[in-house]
Amino acid sequence: MKFAVVAVFCFAFAASAHADTVVDVLQKLGTEKTLISLVQTAGLVSALEGKGPFTVFAPSDAAFAALPPELVKTLESNKTLLTQVLEFHVAPGKALSTDLKNNLLVPSLGGSKIRVNIYDTSEPIVITAEGAPVTNPDNTADNGVVHVISQVMYPLPTGTVVDIAVGNKDFSTLVTAVTTAGLVPTLSGDGPFTVFAPTNEAFAKLPAGVLDGLLKNVTALTNVLTYHVVAGAYYEAGLRNGDLLKTVQGMDVTIKTSNDAPTMVNDATIATQVSGTNGVIQVIDTVLIPPSMHYELIYNN
Q1: Contact 227, 221 (CB under 8 A)
Q2: Domain 161-299 belongs to what topology?
Q3: How many CA atoms lie within 13 A of 109 on its CB side?
C-alpha cells in the first residue's frame, strides 16, 4: 500500500514537472522568437512560468519586424520600458476567445487596460486587442493561454483621445476647434469613441476662409466636428469596404478599403491609428464635411 501511494505521488510529480507553461507554448509556436528573447531580457521568464493563470497577447516575429528598428533597439536597451510594454501584453486570468466580448477592457499585468474588440459584421469574425488582430487564438497552456497577434501593442494607451490630440503638435488646429466647440468634456468621457482626426495639413487644405468661418460659428463647427466622431472603437482591422458608420452628428461616413491602397473614410485617407484609454484616433489627411453642409462651406464661402 505504501508503495502504491509513493508510486502515485511520483507519477503526479513527474506530470506536473512536465506541464506546459505559456513560455513553453510560445516556444512551440515557432513564431515568437523575438518575444521570447525580449521576455528573457526583461527577466520575466520565471514569472510567466509561475502558477498564473495568464492570458498572453503575443506579437509574432513579423509584428516586431514591422516596428521601426530604432524602437526595437530602445526596447532592448531600456529594461524599464521593455517591462512595461511586455506586461501590457499579459493579463491575469485565462480568457479564451469565447470569453472575449466587444469593448471588453482587460486589466494587464502592468495595470493599464487592454481594449478587446470583436467585429462580426462579416466573415471571418475579427478579434483585436488594442487594434492588433488576433491571428492564432486559444493556444492553451497549463497556466494560461496564448493568443498570437499581428501587431505590437505600442505605444501604450496613456490618455484619452483628447489627451493624445493635445500632446501632438500636428493636431493643434483640431484641438483649437474642439475647444471652441466645447466638446473637450464629451470626448474626455468614458466612450469609447472613434475620432477621425484631421491633421493641421488637412485643415490647411480647406478653401480660404472656411476654417475662420467655422471658428466663428459654433453650431456649424460642432456639426463638422461631430461628423468626425463615431460611438464605439473602430480600429482599422475591423473596417470593411462599404461599411457605413453613423457619426455623432447623425449622418454616415463611408469606409473604402482595397488590398493595394490605404483605407479611406469618405475621401480622406487614414494614415495611422493611435489607441487611447477611451477609444481610438484614426489620423486622416482631409477634413470631412457633412454632405448637407458641403455646398455652403466649400462653394458658397
Answers
A1: no
A2: FAS1 domain (2.30.180)
A3: 21
Fold matches, 17-149 and 161-299: yes
Residue type, 105: L
Q: Say whether pLDDT at 11 is over 60.
A: no
pLDDT for position 122: 65
pLDDT in tens, 207-222: 999 999 999 999 999 9
What phi-psi label fits residue 50: left (phi over 0), alpha (psi between -120 and 50 degrees) or beta?
beta
For residue 32, give the C-alpha cell: 515568437
What mean pLDDT is predicted for residues 246-273? Answer: 96
Cα–Cα distance for residue pair 269/267, rounded to 1 Å: 7
**Domain 17-149: assigned CATH number:** 2.30.180.10
* Nearest in space to 162 (alpha carbons), one of 175, 173, 153, 172: 175
- C-beta separation of 178 from 172 below 8 A: no
| Domain edges within the chain | 17-149, 161-299
Q: What is the pTM of this model?
A: 0.89
Q: How far is residue 183's CA from residue 301's CA, in Å, rounded to a whole number?
A: 24
Confirm if 236 and 244 have CB atoms less than 8 A apart.
no
**pLDDT tens track for 101-132:** 999 999 999 999 999 999 986 678 999 999 99
- How is residue 35 written as a grid cell? 518575444
